[in-house]
Amino acid sequence: MKSKILNTGPERTIALVFETGDEVIPLLEEFAKANALSASRFSAIGALRGAVLGYFDWERKDYDRIPVGEQVEVLSLNGDIALDGDQPTVHAHAVLGRRDGSTVGGHVLQATVQPTLEVLLIESPGYLRKTCDRESGLALIDIDA
Fold first, then answer.
1. What pLDDT digit, counting tens, does each position of 83-99 carry?
2. Which class for 61: exposed (0-12), middle (13-18), buried (19 or more C-beta within 10 A)?
């Protein structure tokens, strides 16, 4: 993954270009830690050679896994990076396009790039904190934290 700062303020804008074989979520979290990101949002387009998406099952309080074992276009990938405790955590959703024009979407659990993923990331000057929501068991953005 390569990165370039496009703007430094008041909101910092960073372009990230992922390459074939890059794992999206771990690399985004690694980049967030290395660059002290705490309140970011991002969007992306590109393509993947495979992914695992999730659909949150409210009753089980866990994700149903949706394997995507084929080359797909990333039609939309949106998310945020917020602090969960003192660690930046990525939360992303995607809509992926298949060869026949059908789509599949959900929470991004795993995604492997092929050939590229182009991400525009915007870091806000404030902090976003996540706290554990007791009802769902999920770490959710807490505006008041």
1. 888 899 999 999 999 99
2. exposed
Q: Read out DSSP for 1-26?
A: -EEEEEE-SSSEEEEEEEETT-BHHH
The Cα–Cα gap between 70 and 2 comes to 25
Q: What are 91-127's pLDDT values in tens digits?
A: 999 999 999 999 999 999 999 999 999 999 999 887 7
Q: Rounded to whole angstroms, what are the CA distances from 68 to 98, 104, 108, 130, 133?
A: 9, 8, 11, 28, 29
Token pair listed for 117? 């993923």
- Quote the pTM value: 0.91
| Domains in the chain, CATH or no CATH each | 2-142 (3.30.1330.80)
Distances (CA, A) of 47 to 43, 114, 133, 139: 13, 6, 33, 28
Dig out the tokens for 125 from the structure. Answer: 């000057």
Query: CA 56 → CA 37, 106, 119, 131, distances in Å?
Result: 26, 9, 25, 18
